[in-house]
Each structure stands twice: as structure tokens, then as C-alpha cells.
Design a protein that fits this description.
The structure holds 2 protein chains of 2 kinds. Chain A is mostly helical. In chain A, 87% of the residues lie in helices and 0% in strands. Chain A starts with a helix and ends with a helix. Classes of the chains: A mainly alpha, B alpha/beta.
Chain lengths: 245, 242
């Protein structure tokens, strides 16, 4: 399969999953379950990761610019770094590592045990039943996770700056708020929406296309994560080009 | 886990997400969704790089922000979002100031007047040399000088004097040898000048007119002799072989 046919197959899978007549009433519980799995399930790890992102950002920025620029610049730099790039990207990569693989493994196992064939025999659209709730669930959960991660990272970095770098929280906050542009904040969230679609579609696509047995299921999980990660970084560049370029 | 419990958790998750979103946006933008501010319209001839979001200081306290800027014919209309507890009479002075002399950051300085009337529109002035700031800096300079105590100054002067005398001693010891050599040279030059004055042979040669005349006459006689030899060589050179 060459690159273009792979892109075409992936895209047609996404459109087949999303643009289908689906009734919210019947899919509601499955969507809620996916929001729970992706959102609440990933929340602890996201909080930990975001805290360390905040700490690393403030320490690195302080190391590179302290003494050469006013101290409030640190607040500005960390704030924009977290909002534009680190918050959305690291949250998406963590969720892709945790959820895309599990989606691929779950649906792949259903494929090899012929449960998906059984759904088709029962006249249940497998895309509506399996793929759509996962895409919708991730679509809802990832932006929420991103906002929480950004809040966490900024709070932790500000606190660290106050207690360990001799930068009062007021000074840090001045840099953070004085140079705030709504475009940065909303641009990061727009990114996370695209990332959510890519993560869920990747997980479902490789799960649906498993042929064989247990080994292929494992391979599908790996492919799902790798593809999601590559697509996240590619989309990150393209969206950055459109919004911030 | 029952469906109902899961729904509740998901609901809490989404609500927390929305609350965090609102909190984060409010925190970063400095805007409250339900703001407790009112708009003040000010016209400036030139805003000198003022931007939306820059602070408005009333008696030095931040009491608002620049909400928007718009060019209106040959002026700039600036909308200030002021806190409701600030009352601006119609003789209020509004100006744009720079946060620092080298930075591009600006703020709007508001000095409320004393009039009882208010106005819908105000007219502001651009930034100029901030004499108040200059005055306060001079004050602090004077205060700093005032803190210097006299005993400290005395001790500092004493130390300076000691250091200077030490340095001078060292300098003199360094120059001693060259000065001695210059003395010797001067003595020798004296004796040379005595020689040249006329007491010795060289002095007489240089100074005696009589010797000069004699030498001149001798020279002339020699010249005449040589001319005569050239004209009459046989008179002087008489070679006889046999």
C-alpha cells in the first residue's frame, strides 16, 4: 500500500465513521463511556505530566534568560509556550499512547474474534457502533484535558518561580497576563480538537483493519500509536502555519 | 460501574473542564466575564504605540485597562475599561506615559480633577518628559547622599591619604636611578662647555680672530702660489738629466 492509498483509506474510514446517520439517543451511552475512558482515565497522568512540563519550562527559561531580561518575561515565555505548544502536544501524545493503542487492541480483538462480522449480520453499522463513539468521546475529552493540563502547568510553574527562583507570583502573573493573546489560547485548543480526531481515528482504523491473530492485534496497537504521533506532529506544524504563521 | 455513576463522573469532568476553561481565560486575559467596569472614551492626537490591554493608572494604582483603539478622522479614539469605583470629573487629566525610557510598554495615566460634572468624552495628551519621575529620582539621590555619615568620610579620606603617600614613595624610589644618571650627564656637559668657551685649544681655534686671519692669508698665498706654478711651471720645476 503506497502512501497516497493509505491516506485515502484512512480518510475514507474517518468519513465513513462520522458522516453516517446516527441517532444520539442510541449512541449516547457509548460516547459517555468513551469520554470516561479517555478523559477521566487519562486525568491523573495528564496532571502529573503537566506539572512537570510547567516545572521544566520555568527552570529552562530561567536558566536561559535570567539576568538578561526583566523577570516578568519568564511568565510571558512560559505562558505562551504552554498554551501554544507544550499543553496541546504533550496532552495529545500522552492520550495517543494510552488510548489509541487500547482502541486498536480492543477493536482488533473484536475483528479477529469475528464480533464485528456478527454486528454486521445483526444489521448494526460497526462504524456507528464502535468507531463513532470513540471519535466523539475523544473529541469531547481531549480539549477538556488540554485546558486542565495548561492550567496545571501554569499554576505549578508560577508557584515554583515564587518559591525557588525569587520571582514573586505577581511579577510572573504580570508577564503571563500582560502579553496574553486570545489567539494563543484558542489556537492551542483548536489544535487539540484536530489531535483528538486523529488519535481516535487512528486507533479505530488500525483495529478495524486487523487480519490474523494476536500478533497482528499487537502490531495494530503499535501502528495506531506511531501513526497518531506522526499525524499529531504533522498537524501541529500545519495548524501553526495557518494560525500563527 | 453503573451507567448512572459513569454519567455523573463524565458530567463532573466536563463541568470541571468548562470551569477551568473560564478560570484560565479570565486569569490570563485579566477580563471578567461579568465585568464590573464602565467604558470611558478618550481622544488622543497620537497614542505612541499604546495597545489594547495596557494598564490605566489612577494616582499610580491600576484601575482599568485599554479596551480598544480606533482611528477617528485625525484622532485616535481610545476606550478605557475603568473600575466602577473610579469617578472621573470633566477636568480629569489623561495622558500616555512610557513604563520605562527604553521600553515600548505604555500606560495611561489618569489624574482625576475636582469638578462636580462628568463628561462623556475626554481629551488626552501624549507622553512627554516625566518631570515628576525625574523629581522623585532626584529626591532619592539626595536621600542617598544624605545617608553618608561624616566619620565614614573621614576614615575614607585618611585611607586615601595613606595610599597616596605610599604610592608617591614607591614612585620616588623608581625614579632615583635615572635622576642620578641625569646628574652625571649634566656635569659632563658642563665640562664640555668649559672646553668650548676658549680656555683650551679647541676654544682658541673656535674663538681667536687672529688665527682666522692668518689662516686666511695663508690660504690666499697658497692659491697665488698654485696659480703661479700653473703659469710658470719651469720656474719651479727644473729637471736636468745631464
Amino acid at each position: 500500500m503506497n502512501l497516497f492509498s493509505a491516506i485515502g483509506d484512512f480518510s475514507s474510514f474517518f468519513f465513513r465513521s462520522v458522516f453516517i446517520p446516527w441517532q444520539l439517543k442510541h449512541s449516547r451511552y457509548r460516547i459517555l463511556r468513551q469520554v470516561y475512558e479517555v478523559g477521566i482515565g487519562s486525568l491523573p497522568i495528564i496532571l502529573i505530566i503537566a506539572a512537570f512540563v510547567g516545572l521544566v519550562s520555568i527552570v529552562q527559561t530561567s536558566y536561559q534568560v535570567a539576568g538578561t531580561v526583566p523577570r516578568y518575561i519568564l511568565g510571558m515565555t512560559v505562558g505562551r509556550m504552554v498554551m501554544i505548544e507544550l499543553g496541546p502536544i504533550l496532552t495529545a501524545l500522552m492520550v495517543s499512547g494510552r488510548c489509541a493503542s487500547s482502541m486498536a487492541a480492543e477493536i482488533g480483538t473484536m475483528r479477529v474474534t469475528e464480533q464485528i462480522d456478527a454486528l454486521e449480520i445483526m444489521a448494526i453499522n460497526p462504524y456507528r457502533f464502535l468507531s463513532l463513539p470513540r471519535i466523539m468521546g475523544t473529541f469531547i475529552a481531549l480539549p477538556v484535558l488540554t485546558v486542565i493540563a495548561e492550567f496545571d502547568a501554569l499554576l505549578v510553574s508560577g508557584t515554583y518561580a515564587h518559591f525557588f527562583l525569587d520571582i514573586p507570583f505577581g511579577v510572573f502573573n504580570y508577564g503571563l497576563t500582560h502579553f496574553f493573546y486570545a489567539k494563543d489560547f484558542f489556537g492551542g485548543l483548536v489544535k487539540s480538537i484536530f489531535f483528538a480526531v486523529v488519535i481516535a481515528t487512528s486507533g479505530c482504523y488500525f483495529g478495524f483493519n486487523v487480519r490474523g491473530g494476536a500478533r497482528e492485534v499487537g502490531r495494530a496497537a503499535t501502528y495506531a500509536v506511531v501513526t497518531a504521533s506522526i499525524l499529531i506532529l504533522t498537524l501541529d506544524f500545519l495548524i501553526a502555519l495557518v494560525i500563527f504563521g | 460501574m453503573t451507567k448512572g455513576l459513569r454519567e455523573t463522573f463524565v458530567g463532573i469532568f466536563v463541568v470541571v473542564g468548562v470551569i477551568v476553561f473560564i478560570a484560565l481565560y479570565t486569569w490570563l486575559s485579566g477580563k471578567m466575564f461579568f465585568s464590573n467596569t464602565y467604558d470611558v472614551r478618550v481622544y488622543f492626537g497620537d497614542v505612541e504605540g499604546l495597545r489594547a490591554g495596557d494598564p490605566v493608572l489612577v494616582y499610580g494604582i491600576e484601575k482599568g485597562k485599554v479596551k480598544s483603539l480606533r482611528i477617528d478622522s485625525n484622532q485616535v479614539e481610545v476606550i478605557l475599561a475603568m473600575d466602577r469605583d473610579v469617578h472621573l470629573p470633566d477636568d480629569t487629566k489623561i495622558s500616555i506615559r512610557a513604563v520605562s525610557y527604553i521600553g515600548a510598554d505604555k500606560y495611561v495615566k489618569v489624574t482625576p480633577g475636582t469638578s462636580d460634572k462628568t463628561s462623556d468624552v475626554y481629551y488626552g495628551t501624549g507622553s512627554s518628559l516625566d518631570l515628576e519621575a525625574l523629581g522623585s529620582q532626584l529626591d532619592s539621590l539626595i536621600t542617598t547622599f544624605g545617608k553618608i555619615e561624616i566619620p565614614d568620610l573621614d576614615e575614607a579620606l585618611r585611607n586615601l591619604s595613606t595610599d597616596l603617600s605610599r604610592s608617591l614613595d614607591r614612585l620616588l624610589s623608581i625614579f632615583k636611578e635615572p635622576v642620578d644618571k641625569i646628574d652625571v650627564l649634566a656635569t659632563r656637559l658642563d665640562s664640555l662647555s668649559m672646553l668650548l668657551k676658549g680656555d683650551g685649544t679647541v676654544g682658541r681655534l673656535l674663538k681667536s680672530d687672529e688665527l682666522y686671519e692668518e689662516l686666511r692669508e695663508t690660504n690666499l698665498a697658497l692659491k697665488a702660489l698654485i696659480e703661479d706654478i700653473n703659469e710658470n711651471p719651469k720656474k719651479y720645476i727644473n729637471i736636468k738629466v745631464f
